[in-house]
Design brief:
- The chain is an all-alpha fold.
- The chain has one domain.
- It contains nine helices and no strands.
- The radius of gyration is 18 Å and the shape is globular.
Length: about 220
Amino acid sequence: MEIINPLSGSEILIYLLGFFAQALFGARTVVQWVQSERAGRVVSPTWFWIFSLCGSAFFLVYGLIRQDVIILFGQTISFYIYIRNLQLKQVWNKLHWSLRWIIFPLPFMLMVWAWLIAPQRFQNIFTETNFASVALLLGGAGQLLLNFRYIYQWYFSEKAQQSLLPLGFWVISAVASLMVVYYGIIHNEPVLLVAQGMGFVVYLRNIWFALRTRAVVAQ
């Protein structure tokens, strides 16, 4: 019978960091879900993007510590789309310029910091990753889709000059979520499993809303 080794104190802290980031992502989902339920249609509340940006920053740190190239790549792309949506919401420019200067380069600042304090560990993220792994390829494709949904969302938002969450955004989210869940199972990533499992329910609910109304309106 295989004995499961208990987690060390540092491993527990790392997982707590990951779950905290996912709690922020969960908060955005709850806010969006509640406001959509109240409105009876899909809405794009400002707090959805604020929680997204905060969660992305913490999840980037988690990805660096876990040496997970999928998380790093995905969150770096998403980070800047969150900022763009805050710009469309007229929130970003209300922040003090010094705060914007700190936030904007944050993903790259974190990677430079990781490289400076532990160059070999940082290099291992890329040199020791088995890019031919089926799970990694599927997880990578899922993460690409999770990021592509924001590019898709960005396109529709730019056309309307307001932050929108169209039907396709939720369909892509649901499909990508299942792919990332598979990756999480194979790579023993409980943070991804919990996050995507909870998110899948909300994605289906928003698909139902969008199909019912056939009109995507920003709040």
